Every structure is written in structure tokens, then in C-alpha cells.
Amino acid sequence: MRHQFLLAGVIAAAVAAQPSAQAPRKPSYRAARTAWGAPDIHGYYTNKDEANTPLERPQQLAAKDAGAFSEAELASLAKERAALAQRIAGGIGGAETGAGPTHWYDHLAAKGSRPWFIVDPPDGQLPAMTPQAQRREAAVALLNDARNGEGRADSPTDRSMYDRCITRGLPGSMMPAIYGNAYQIVQTPDAVAIRYEMIHETRIVPLDGRPHAGARLHLLMGDARGRFDGDTLVVETTNFTSRTHFGYNNRYNSDKLKLVERFTPIAPGKLNWEVTVNDPDVWTGSWTFAMTLTKDDSQPIFEYACHEGNYGLLHILKGARAED
């Protein structure tokens, strides 16, 4: 089961040298309104077209401007990325097993609208990790080396929340993967709900101005509070645990993580999803990434039923015992 979830790191590394262009914002666009007057952002969305895009700016493009490419160049680059994704699809998660038949995959024709996701810092690179975060990463690397890079497998609790079909965490739950990239946004006057296809969680964002939960309460998906700023839904999430990852190369987060998300309609059926990450125990500075969510009513949420078919976890543990 865990092999389903390795696309982000595999594709990000494989396409690191491929440029495209930053999707232009359209601040003059005004979203339709709900019956109660709020910006209407409800519907089914997908980010499958962003699946082949690296988080950071590739070093090969350090001197490139994100908006310097023509539409024709973008189309050509999209084909190159899709061809590369197709070539490596059968080996995702290991050449002998893979993550499943490639007809499951919905990223093989991705039209990535950006050269990379990070928009701040301006160099498109993650800030340095703190010394304590570096020590934790080094300790995890040593454990992984003991299992040929696969990590500890002495009990189910050694595996990630993702492997165990519990959660992808945040913002991981909305990061593109090889399939399961559908999302549903539901609105009421006092709340927004975001339903995720993969792992099948539903996140509730109150809009009624209530304070965050007490500092002693920590949740796998954090404690979200939202408000509309013009057309933009601003969501601030705190009260995380340190048991999850934020969705890129298994980089972990601490319980001090704070996310500020901005969902901004930029065109009919398009949302710019921008996320600012502030985690002083992990990063020496805050950073922001953005991607496009595309409304697509042909992508309804399918039941994920991850636990019902999670033989992967059983086999990971059996394989580790055989190796012992």
C-alpha cells in the first residue's frame, strides 16, 4: 500500500530540470456569490495537472524567470513531463511491485501550470532546517538505512500515518499524487468543509469567529479557523501533532506548525491555493507555495476504503520479519 504514495518525491526529482511558467493571477476576477452573499467556491476540484511539478525551483533554472515562457513552450514542456511520468510509472514504489496498474493513475497527462510550487522565498528554495530538525532527519536516515531505505517495520506504529491509512496530514492531503486527486468543497453560511478522496478525510473549517482550541489539544489535521477576505477564503490552522508529515519527501512537522491557506478564485472554475508554512522547530524561516485547483464535476469523490484493502502494511511487516 505504501508504494502508492511515493510519486511526489519520484516525480519531483525526475522533472527537476524541466521549466514551465507560473500561472498568472487575475486579481480583477470576481467570483459568483452564494445565496447568502459569500464567494461561491463549492464544487469538485482536482490538482492532477500539478502532479509532475517539483516543490522547489530546480538549480538548473536558478537564473530563470517563472513567467518567461510562451504558451507553445509550456505545451511542449507539458508533453516532456508527461512522457517522463509515463516512462517511470511502472516502477513507482519498486520495479517488482509498483504502486498498481497504471490505468489507475491520473497524472500521466498532467499539464503542470508552474515551474515549481514555492513562491516565497523568491529563489524558490526551502529555507534551511533548524539544528534540531537536522538531528531528527539524521536519526531517521540511520533507521532507514537499516531497512535499505524503507524505515523501521517492527510494528504498525513504526509506519507512517499514510502507510496506515490514517491521514496524509496537512498540507499533504491536498498535494497531488498518482491518483485520488479529487477534492470536494462544501459551503454553508458558517462553515466550509473540504473532503479528500485519498484517505477519505473531511476537514471542517468554521467561519463563525470562534477561537482556536486550547494549546494542549493537538490534532492530526490541526484546528482550522476560516474567514473571507474579499473573494479569498483564508484558513489558519494550528494545534498540530508532530506525528504527521507535510507531504513532500517525508519532511516532518512539529506541533508548533502553523499553516495559513488562501483559496482565491482566479477564473471560472479555477482556485489559486496558496499555503504559508511556519514551523519554528523545523524551518529557520517561513515559506509559501501555491498551486492551481481546477473545478471538474466529472471527478466526484470515490470511496477510498484504504483499510479494507491495506494488505501493504501486513506485507511490509512480514517482509521485515523475513529479512530479520
Q: Outline, from the CA principal axes?
A: globular
Distance between the termini: 21 Å
Low-confidence stretches: 1-24
Overall helicity: 10-25%
The biggest sheet, with number of strands, parallel, antiparallel or mixed sense and barrel status, is: 10 strands, antiparallel
Instruction: Please tell me the overall pLDDT.
Output: 84
* Coarse structural class: alpha+beta
List the total number of helices.
Answer: 4
The arrangement of helices and strands along the chain is HEHEHEEEEEEEEH
Taking all Cα atoms into account, the compactness measure Rg is 20 Å
How many β-strand runs?
A: 10
What fraction of residues sit in β-strands?
15-25%
Keywords for this entry:
alpha+beta; 324 residues; 21% strand; single chain; disordered N terminus
Short overview:
The chain has helices at residues 7-14, 71-89, 131-146, 311-323, and strands at 43-46, 118-120, 182-188, 191-196, 202-206, 223-229, 232-238, 258-267, 270-278, 287-295. The protein is of the alpha+beta class and 324 residues long.
Protein model, in words:
The chain starts with 6 loop residues before the first helix and ends with a helix. Strands 1, 2, 3, 4, 5, 6, 7, 8, 9 and 10 form a ten-stranded antiparallel β-sheet that branches. Strand 4 and strand 5 (202-206) form a beta hairpin. The protein is globular. The relative contact order is 0.19. With 324 residues, it is an alpha+beta fold. 17% of the residues lie in helices and 21% in strands. Mean pLDDT is 84; it is low at 1-24. It contains four helices and ten strands. It has helices at 7-14, 71-89, 131-146, 311-323; strands spanning 43-46, 118-120, 182-188, 191-196, 202-206, 223-229, 232-238, 258-267, 270-278, 287-295.
